[in-house]
Amino acid sequence: MSNSYSIEPIGVCRTPYAQKFAIPRQPGLVPAAQGIIEMAPGFDNPDLLRGLEQYSHIWLTFLFHQNLEQGWRPTIRPPRLGGNARIGVLASRSTFRPNGLGQSVVEIEAVDIDSRPPRVIIRGMDLLDGTPIIDIKPYIPYADSIPKARGGMAQKAPQTISVEFAKAALQLIQQLPVSKYPNLQQIIVEVLQQDPRPAYKAKRQDDKRYTMQLFDLDISWHFNDGCAKVESVAPLNN
Ligand code: SAM
Fold first, then answer.
1. pLDDT over threshold 70, residue 56
2. For ligand 1, what atom is nearest to the CA of residue 64?
3. Superkingdom of this entry's organism (predicted)?
4. What local confidence, expressed as pLDDT, does residue 190 receive?
5. If we measure between CA atoms, which residue out of 113, 103, 108, 134 comes closest to residue 123?
6. What angle do CA 64, 68, 74 make, to 5 degrees?
7. Is 66 in a helix, a strand, or coil?
8. Which residues form the pocket of ligand 1, taking CB atoms under 6 Å from any ligand atom?
């Protein structure tokens, strides 16, 4: 008997995160960001989702599909430890892991079984646009929430930093259509509050100009005096 099993994604998650850089490191940190799970052919019978609307949150199991080709390593250097100390991959939430599976609890905004394909609208995910979804399960507070659990190196959410906008960047955001870029300003604030720079730079002064991609926009900022300042917002590859 073979020890290998094949898995077929049941859907795909559409998110504003067009690249890995600056995606929050855990779910729930950017509640302003909305995602859409579209059920895949073969799993698009609305019956699969019937009753899910009774829950406020779901567990998503998904593939770190953009890392699969790079394989995995037994130890990793978590951002929480400044990117220097090594721990076992199974003692971490690293994306470079055996089988490349991720799991996140996210909020349900709506369950739309009448659309074709059926969709689940979610909030606060930490997933790249196009992430294959392997499974969806309801989050059950009495069993899944353990308030006294030990959180190891991640007992508390990381400290946030403040975010400012240059006048021109703010004006541009305000001119963009809300239907295409829902909550854009708030998403930028919540993403940059997490200080998405590489771990070894966290909270340190730094003169570099950074660019992240949200939706089809390039968003540039720099870090100064403990604060992230958004300098420009422009269509991708402009
Ligand atoms: N909450 C999940 C878990 O614990 O399994 C994910 C944690 S992981 C540290 C979150 C990071 O995964 C994000 O910041 C992003 O860089 C990365 N990521 C998200 N979707 C991905 C994908 N489809 N392929 C590769 N990396 C991805």
1. yes
2. 24
3. Bacteria
4. 98
5. 108
6. 95
7. helix
8. 20, 23-27, 64-67, 93, 95, 102-104, 126-128, 131
Q: The tokens 């993403």 sit on which residue?
A: 191
Residue having the nearest C-alpha atom to atom 11 of ligand 1: 25
Residue of minimum CA distance from atom 16 in ligand 1: 20
Q: How far apart are CA 80 and CA 137, in angstroms?
A: 28
- Give 181-236 pLDDT, tens digit per residue: 999 999 999 999 999 998 766 666 788 999 999 999 999 999 988 899 999 999 98
Centroid of ligand 1 to alpha carbon of 80 (angstroms): 15
Cα–Cα distances in Å, from 133 out to 129, 140, 150, 200?
Answer: 11, 20, 28, 31
**Residue among 225, 230, 224 at smallest CA distance from 191:** 230
Assessment of whether the complete model's pTM goes beyond 0.90: yes
CA–CA distances in Å: residue 115 to residues 107, 110, 200, 201: 20, 12, 45, 44
Residue 165 CA to ligand 1 centre (angstroms): 27
Q: With beta carbons less than 8 A apart as the criterion, state whether 105 and 27 touch.
A: yes
Residue where the block lists tokens 């294959």: 132
ipTM of the assembly?
A: 0.99
